[in-house]
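Appendix B. One record, verbatim.
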Amino acid sequence: MRLFGRELECASIDALLKQARGGRSASLVLRGEAGVGKTALLRYAESSAANALWISGVESEADFPYAALHRLLIPLLPGRDRLPTGQRAAVEVACGLADGPPPDLYLVSLAALTLLAEAPRLCLIDDAQWLDRESLRALAFVARRLHAEGVVLLFGLRAEDDDPGLLAGLEARDVGGLGPEAAVALLTDVVDTPVDPALAEHIARATGGNPLALTDLGRELTAEQLRGSTPLPEPAPIGSRLEAHYTARIRGYPPATQTWLLLAAANAGGSAGQVTEAGQLLGTTPADAAAAEADRLVTGSPPLTFRHPLVRSAVYGGAAPAQRRAAHRALATAITGDTDADRRAWHLAAAADGPDETTAAELERRADRAGARGGHTARATFLTRAAELTPDPVRRAERQVRAAEAALTAGAFARALVLLDASGEVALPGPVHGSALLIRSMAEVNAGAPGGQRHAPARCLTAAASFGDDRSLARRAVVQAIDHTIGAEHLSTVTEAEVAAAAIALAGDDLDGLILAGYHAFTVDGYERGVPALRRAIAAVADPALPAETLLRRLVIGVNFCNLIWADDTKKVLLDRAEAAAHRTGALHALDLVHYLGTITGVALGRLNDADRHDTAGQRLRQAIGMTAEQELVWRHPELVAWRAGPGVRESVTAALDVFEMLTLGSLHGWTRFSLAILDNAESRYSAARDTLCGLIELGRPRRYACALPDLVEAALRCGDRRTAKLALADLTLAAGACDSPRATGLLDRSRALLAGSAEAEPHYRRAIEHLTGGLGHGDLARARLLYGEWLRRQRRRRDAREQLGLALEMFEEVRAEAFAERTRRELRALGGDAPMPVRQTDETALTPQEAAVARLARDGGTNAEIAAHLYLSASTVDYHLRKVYRKLGVRSRRQLRTSLHD
């Protein structure tokens, strides 16, 4: 297959295919303007591969969920019986092969990955900008998770189209116009008469080397024009001008030809029989396509194939609105039966020339059907069009709010906000207004809108009032207000007391009612009276009978309540159960949240290796779902960086503080400041630590940052502020006594030891170590040994001090808590002798985070297929990583792995 001037692009494709034959997967996005040759490059790839699947995006099909993915997978679906149960059910519902609950996008994506990975193949996706959003998201996910399957995905994408960023993170290559020599060679090749060399160069420049423009212009020009004796058309058709060029040609055809072409353009994705029947209604037949076929603008009729998408655009865009409506009306009449009911409804909507409640209601029903298949983007589109056709203004606004809700579910947060703005939500009836406010609060927070988190709690409280006597909806709104208040903290426009007042009015005995009661009791009454209410709410969230969806929805509140009362064991149960539920249901955004909370929990407990696992898994997920670098800023963990205390840590953490403050993420801002204070304590910068902590903690009212009281006791005492240290200890005594948690009790004894005299300190240190040993607080125990060792050294008990400091150093080095490890080494050096630096693994022996995750699951008995489902990989990729694990660890089997691999 000859491609003029595309040697570099062809070489890149050849390299990918060669790599695939060696078992490695790859993806590439070919991006360029219309006519630049993306399709030709995909055809070149197809001609070089033995096993290829091809689909092209169709603009009129972009609103039908999973339509493109279904077309791609048709040859593979007979093998779906081999899929894991959840994946099989998801892909069957998505492809309309079975009924069931709306499938999660990422379960569908994983099913596609599994099917494609079963045999090496090339997947070619042309005009990707016109794929339905669900299919494009699924294929982008597949492309990001490919590794060792021998699968290649090539996308052709129009550069001038509005790219929603769904292919972000994939390798892309811009395909530009041909160079002068190649452009002249192509022009000479496509014409039958001699071409004046200077004229050929002029044409090459005028078209920008666009191959389609060169080809069509060369075939259009007369022999006199090519010889230079007659002027050329100016400007030369290219890009949008090329479409105008096609439009002019089409308008020269007989009316019956134009009508037939318009029906074909409007019926993309429909059957040949439907366009033929619609043609009979409008007085045209397949024979009327002859003129366009002679000009090579189309081939085959029916079904009719357009030479290029620009031809289809020219046909449809060049028709008068009344002609387009007539074509859609005829197509709607030609479509019968339930299988194409969605398409019929869409044609009816396109045929409408004004408000039409009957059509709007049908679109609304079709929207619900799309939502049942997991097509939330399509649902939003159907509802938006239904709203446009709705005569009654109130009903129209209600449909716009429902469309916004669907857009929110689809992750299209900006679109949801636009729809809400159009609805005029302030004038909506109470319950609809309340729903709009809840949707807006979630959309603004998720979109990172300026002040979104700050205003979200107030919006939710207003929504609760809008629901009137509907206590169920009002309760949900106030629980959402609590969720947002946890995120906004001190940056919220409403106080915790205001949220608590709304909560107590709706408290009850069900899950949300117990959450409201617990939040009110703790906020208003503090630890002594609030802890029992919090325990009841935590028990309700941790109930094993709670549905997975509800657990994931209430996870942030449950974890937060556990933090308040040092309920570490229950928090671990919640996170483990939520992680399993998110894996099982394919809820990757929820799984990302689990990993985010898991990282924070690992840091809080000083279990930095656990934090690393969650942080790495979260990064992999965010890459897989196509999160941009700007979006990922919110999900970074400066507190983990602070514990590690590497070079430039203060600069990077300070930069994170600025981001969190800009986005009004008060909890992340406060947690990061707390982490900086811990780093200050580790580095003996006690005055700075005390000042930071005093800005977080309201002494005399231990609340959200009671967990920071032990650090304040240490910092204040070490910088000579004994008064503040005593006040902090009094608050810690109250909080720890109410919680009756082993870790809280251990931290209380550790803090009492610091303030105790020489005769009383040691029993407190020993009790602290006893309470903390065997619990989850690895960092707290290590710091207790460090403080005890420091005290012993000052008591001149060198042997005992060395023992405690050695144990502390071992624990700090185990999790690479560098600042505390260095503080411990200084103490050991003060005792005399060396404090050796730890030996780090080299790149040759250290497992990568991905390898470590695979190894842990294999050690625990997971099969390759189970590990693949858990990590959202293919079984081939799992096998690839496992072989590398065996080589690095010097083992040959899973049984040997169990004895050589430790957490």
